[in-house]
Amino acid sequence: MSFWSCLPLILSASLALGHVEPQGPRAKPIPADLDSFDVLRVSTAGQIIHDADFRGFGPRGCVNDASHTDPTFSSTQWTAQAGFVENEIAAATYTLPASAFPIKIETMKCLFVTLNAVVQTTTEWSVLVWEGTPTSGTLVAEYSSDGLVLPHLVMPPGTNGTLIEVSVDPGDPEQIFITNANGSNKFTIGFRIDNHNSQSGACSTPPSNRNAFPATDRDGLGASTANWLYAMNCPFACPAGWHTFSQLDLLCRPTGDWALAATWSSLDCVEGFGACCLPDGTCELMFIDNCVAVGGTYQGDGVDCSEADCPIPTGACCFPTGFCLVLPEADCTGAGGTYAGHGTTCADNNGNSQPDACESGPCIADRNGDGQLNFFDVQHFLNNWSALNASADMNSDGQYNFFDVQIYLNLFAAGCP
Fold first, then answer.
1. Would you tell me how many other CB atoms lie within 10 Å of the CB of residue 268?
2. Helix (H, G, I), strand (E, B) or coil at 214
3. pTM to 2 decimal places
4. Inter-residue contact 90 to 214 (CB < 8 Å)
5. Less packed terminus of the chain by CB within 10 Å, N or C?
6. Are 119 and 106 within 8 A, CB to CB?
7. pLDDT tens track for 355-366
8. Biggest alpha carbon distance in the chain?
9. Which long-range contacts (CB under 8 A, 24 or more apart) does 248-254 make?
C-alpha cells in the first residue's frame, strides 16, 4: 500500500497481537501519545553522541534551526503516518535569507513512532539532502543505515518515539555544503524507510503494531507547500512520485507538518562576531566583548547590520513650557522641543522642580562653568564619575557605568547653545 490513499475507508481499531491488517491502499494517520522518548544521536562516522544539547560540530553561536515543527520535539503527542511503506520519503524544504549562503548542514532530524508495538522493531533508513527542492534541485548527500557505521533504528515494544539525529562528522571528507548556486535560497532534507521491520509486499500495508513510522505534528499544517511526500506507485493510491502536501487532495493530505528538523551554519560566520547595536542607535560589526565594552547590545553571531533591529535612542525633550518627555531626537525636534542628548532623562535630582537635563543656565557639558568646552570639563566629569558623585549619574539610574560616560560624551560632542 502506498502512503496515503485517496479512497475513504473505515479503519479497523484492533491492534491486538495476531491481528491481520487488511490489504489494500488507504490513508492511515493514527494518533500516538508516547509512553517514552529516545534520541538516536549519531555522526556520519558512526560516533554516538551523548551531549543532549548537541546542535552540530560547528561553532555553537553560529548554528541555526530550520523546522516547520517544534525543533525541540518536546511534545508527547504526534500522529503516526502508518500507511508509509518501504522506499517512501518524508521531506521538508527550508527557505533562508540569501545572505546566509553558502551554508553547511550540521544535523538532520526525523521523529519515528511506534503504535502499541507487540515486538521490538528494526527499521533500515536513509537521510537525503537537496540543494533546492526535490523536484527542481540537486541531491547533494545521502547516508543509509547499515547496522555497522550508521545503526538501524531499533525500538522497544509499546507506543514510543525515537528521534534520529544525524550530524556530519568533521573528519568526513563529504561535508554537506549548500552554495545556493540555483538561487532558490532553499534546501531540503528527507528521510526514507528502506526496509520496515515487517512488510510482506511492496504495496501491502505494514502492520501498525509491528513497525515504526515517521510522524507529523498535531499543531495544524503550517507549511503545506514546504512539506513533501515521495509516494510509491501503487494501485488506487495517492499520486506516485514527489508532491507537496498542498498538491495532495484532502483524503491524502496530512493535517500536520512532518516531524523533521535541521541545523545549519553560514560558512562566513565567526563565533562571537556579529552586529552590535550602539547606544546612539547605529550598528557596527564587532566581537561581542568589544560590543559590551562600548555599551552596545550584541545581536548574535553572524548577524549582519542589515538584519539587526537596533532601537532608536531616546533622551530628555525639553519644552518651553517646562514640560519634559523622553523621546527620540527626531520626534523631539519635530514637536518643538529641545533634545538634551541620548540617554538623558527627565529626572529632577536636585529637587528644584525642573528636570536636570532641561535646567537653564550653564551648559550641562560645561562641567567647570567657564563657558568653554575642553579637556578640563571631561576631566571634571570623570573625576566625579570615579568618586560616584550624583552629578555624574547622567541617566539617574543609581549606577555609575559606561552609559553615564556615553551620555556625557554625547552632550560634550553636541556643544553648548
1. 14
2. strand
3. 0.66
4. yes
5. C
6. no
7. 888 876 557 787
8. 98
9. 248/4, 249/6, 251/4, 251/5, 251/6, 251/7, 251/8, 251/27, 252/4, 252/5, 252/6, 252/27, 253/4, 253/221, 253/224, 254/4, 254/29, 254/79, 254/81, 254/216, 254/221, 254/227
